[in-house]
Design goal:
Strand order of the largest sheet: 2-8-7-6-5-3-4
CATH class of the largest domain: Alpha Beta
CATH architecture of the largest domain: 3-Layer(aba) Sandwich
Radius of gyration: 22 Å
Number of strands: 13
Structural class: alpha/beta
Shape: globular
Order of helices and strands: HHEHHEHEHEHEHEEEHHHEEHEEEH
Number of domains: 2
Oligomer: single chain
Number of helices: 13
Strand content: 5-15%
Length: 379
C-alpha cells in the first residue's frame, strides 16, 4: 500500500484511535529462567479436579460454546445467590470493562476512576473520545465530595477497584455503599482481587440498581490464561451489556473451567493460604531491607524502594538478575515497585536479589538477612 493510500486509510480512523500509535513488537518474551512477578498471576496450576474439566472440554472443541454463556451464567447464579439475568460472563473481566465503556460513553463524556488505578482505563476512555478523570483517594476513605459534587459530578460512571490495583489497599464495604447510595450514576466496583480481602460488595447489588460488580478468575483461581470473568448487576443493565457482547465471546474450555471452579472453590484453600502467608513474610523481609510496603489485601505488594534510587532503577536492576517486577511511572508511584506473590522459591529468589542490590548500594539502617533466612543470591 502506497503512503498516500495508507494516509487515506488512517484518516478514516476515529479521533480516539488516531491518538494511539501503531503498537510495535516488544521483542522476544523472557525465557523461562526469569522469575515472573510483574503481572499478578496466581503462581500455581489449576487443581487436578478442575484441570480434568479443561481436558474433557477439548473433546467438544468442534462445537460452538453455549449461546450467551448460559450454562456458566447459571452456575454463577447458583454459587453467588443471584438470578441468572443479573450475571454476564466474559473473556476475562477486561472484556466486560470494555463493554461498559462502549455502552455508556459517547465522545466528550466523562468517566472517573479512583486513582491510582488500573491504567487500561485511560486507553479505553481515549478510544471512546471521553475525558478521563483520576480522583485521588485516601487509604481508608473515598473522596465523596469530589465524586458527588466536585470534578466527577458529570461523569457517566465511576470506577472503584477494591482491593485496589496497584496499591493493594481495601475500602470498607460500608464506604462503598455510601457512594452508591448517594450517587445516581453507575458505580463500577472492580473486585478482581476480592478473594484475598476480608469482605466483598456482592450483597449490595439487590439493594442498588446503579451498582455493577466485576469479578475475574485470573487472580485467585489460577485461570489467567483461560480468561473467565463475570459482571453482576441489575438485569436491565446486564441485559443491555449482553446484547452488545460479541457472539461466542468465550470458548468451551473457559466455560468448563469456570463451571468447575464455581463447584470446587474449596480446592483453592491451600493456594489462598499460601498467598496470604507469603504476602506477610515478604512484607517483613522487604521492610528489613529499607522498603516501605503498603499493607495489601491482594496477591501483590506495592513497595516504596529505599532512598537514593527510583522504581525504574530497581525494576531494571532486578531484571538484570532475571527477576521481573512492575513499575509505574506516574500517579506519584515513581519510587515504587509492585511485586506479585509467587511461589516460595520465586519469592526467595526475589528477596535474595533485592539483598544483593541493597548490599551493593550500602544503604544504612538495613539488614542483609530478611525474614526468609539466607542472604545468598539465587541466579
Amino acid at each position: 500500500m502506497s503512503d498516500a493510500k495508507l494516509q487515506a486509510v488512517l484518516s478514516s480512523l476515529p479521533q480516539g484511535t488516531r491518538q494511539l500509535d501503531a503498537l510495535p513488537s516488544n521483542g522476544p518474551a523472557p525465557d523461562k529462567s526469569f522469575v515472573k512477578l510483574n503481572t499478578n498471576e496466581n503462581p500455581f496450576p489449576l487443581p487436578p479436579i478442575i484441570m480434568q474439566s479443561a481436558v474433557a472440554a477439548l473433546n467438544r472443541q468442534y462445537l460452538y460454546p453455549d449461546d450467551d454463556n448460559i450454562s456458566l451464567r447459571e452456575a454463577a447464579s447458583s454459587t453467588y445467590g443471584v438470578s441468572t439475568d443479573q450475571v454476564i460472563a466474559g473473556n476475562g473481566s477486561s472484556e466486560l470493562l470494555g463493554l461498559i465503556y462502549r455502552a455508556f460513553l459517547a465522545p466528550g463524556d466523562k468517566v472517573a476512576m479512583i486513582s491510582p488505578g488500573f491504567s487500561f482505563n485511560r486507553k479505553l476512555a481515549m478510544l471512546h473520545g471521553a475525558e478521563f478523570l483520576e480522583i485521588g483517594c485516601q487509604t481508608h476513605s473515598l473522596p465523596m465530595e469530589q465524586l458527588l459534587s466536585g470534578p466527577a459530578k458529570d461523569a457517566k460512571f465511576i470506577l472503584v477497584a477494591n482491593p485496589n490495583n496497584p496499591t493493594g489497599t481495601f475500602l470498607s464495604i460500608s464506604n462503598i455503599e455510601r457512594l452508591v447510595a448517594q450517587s445516581d450514576r453507575l458505580v463500577v466496583l472492580d473486585e478482581a482481587y476480592v478473594d484475598f480481602a476480608p469482605d466483598h460488595g456482592l450483597r449490595l447489588i439487590n439493594r442498588y440498581s446503579n451498582l455493577l460488580i466485576l469479578r475475574t478468575f485470573s487472580k485467585s483461581y489460577a485461570a489467567a490464561g483461560i480468561r473467565v470473568g463475570f459482571g453482576f448487576g441489575h438485569p436491565e443493565i446486564i441485559g443491555r451489556l449482553r446484547n452488545i457482547q460479541n457472539v461466542f465471546n468465550m470458548n468451551v474450555i473457559g466455560h468448563a473451567v469456570g463451571i468447575s471452579v464455581l463447584a470446587h472453590r474449596g480446592a483453592y484453600a491451600e493456594n489462598h493460604k499460601h498467598i496470604r502467608h507469603e504476602r506477610q513474610r515478604v512484607t517483613a523481609a522487604l521492610s528489613q531491607l529499607g522498603f516501605s510496603v503498603t499493607p495489601s489485601h491482594a496477591n501483590f505488594l506495592l513497595a516504596r524502594v529505599p532512598a537514593g534510587q527510583d522504581g525504574s532503577w530497581w525494576q531494571a536492576a532486578l531484571e538484570r538478575q532475571k527477576i521481573l517486577v512492575a513499575y509505574f511511572p506516574d500517579n506519584g508511584l515513581e519510587h515504587c515497585i509492585r511485586v506479585s506473590i509467587g511461589t516460595k522459591e520465586q519469592l526467595d529468589a526475589f528477596l535474595a536479589a533485592a539483598r544483593d542490590i541493597v548490599g551493593s548500594l550500602n544503604i544504612p539502617g538495613t539488614t542483609g538477612r530478611g525474614a526468609s533466612g539466607s542472604a545468598r543470591s539465587v541466579r
